[in-house]
Amino acid sequence: MAGTDSFGVENGMGIRAVEWMNLYSKERKMDFKAQLEGYRISSKNFGDFEIMSWNGNWSDARKIIIKASTKLSMRVIESGYHQKDNLLTSFFGFGKEFAKVYKKGNFIGTIVLGMRSGKWYIKSEKLG
Length: 128
Known about the structure:
By secondary structure, the chain is of the alpha+beta class. It has one domain. It is built from three helices and seven strands. A seven-stranded antiparallel beta sheet has the order 2-3-1-4-5-6-7, with helices on one face. The model has no long low-confidence stretch (mean pLDDT 88).
């Protein structure tokens, strides 16, 4: 799902995080632009996250979201990892979307995401 609503930032940090990431990418001439999607997801182990969408380069996006986690001392979700399934299950959306969770730039766990009515939800989670 790279290039869509596949990242999340710690609840309450959304506006600050998106502004910081967009300014950081602009100053460094990176291909990245983010915006909040207006909904949240909750996890038992990692807390609540505001979902954001982004456009641009996957490599730049990954670097920026992890950098934001460090600079703003917050938890983030970096999604976009897919299970290697057959083409048919992926086409119909039955494949799994995996995400890494970082806190202050350090990997702390993983979550498996699903989509319902065009919005992400957490299927399962595991501490790192």
